[in-house]
Amino acid sequence: MKKLLIILIVFVSFFSTKLYSQQGLPFFLEKKNTVDVTLGGGGIFVSVNYSRIVFVESKYFLCASVGIGTAPFIGGSTYPHQLSINFGKKRDFLELGLGGSYWIGKTNASGYTITDFSYNLMPSIGYRRNFSNNFVFKIYGTAFINLAGVYVFEDYPVVPFGGLSFGYSF
Predict the structure, then answer these.
(1) Least confident window among 5-9, 52-56, 140-144, 157-161
(2) Does domain 33-169 have CATH number 3.20.20.70?
(3) Which residues of 38-66 are buried (b: 16+ CB within 10 A; e: fewer)?
(4) Which end of the chain is more exposed for a tag (fewer CB within 10 A), N or C?
């Protein structure tokens, strides 16, 4: 009987989840999806991103995002992605993130056009504001740290960068 009780406690503890009522969540966390346009950031020039709040606690939440962007000055497409944790209680948050950006484009090396790629790690720190009308604003600083492929920014393996994002939650 004692073994059965221990197994039952472990089973219930392992499979239990936190449930929130609609009234228990702040208004901006009721809508967990966001679509935004980012200038700079992981898209290098401009990107469209989808993010989802995947985990919520009282003073922080975890957010995952993916996107597609363009880099007109260097050519090609970018595919940014990020996992971030946001600290705060009301509408203003400190956002700490770790993500990456995959770039693929064509370069002209010695008269021959070839397809090149680059993968850059992107740690970030920034500010996020959720407005009552479902708009989301973010500004952040990041660094492109080249891990594979050609250097997107000349011959620099690490480049400081930033981003400005305007989005809508639904």
Answers:
(1) 5-9
(2) no
(3) bebbbbbeebebebebeebeeeebebbbe
(4) N
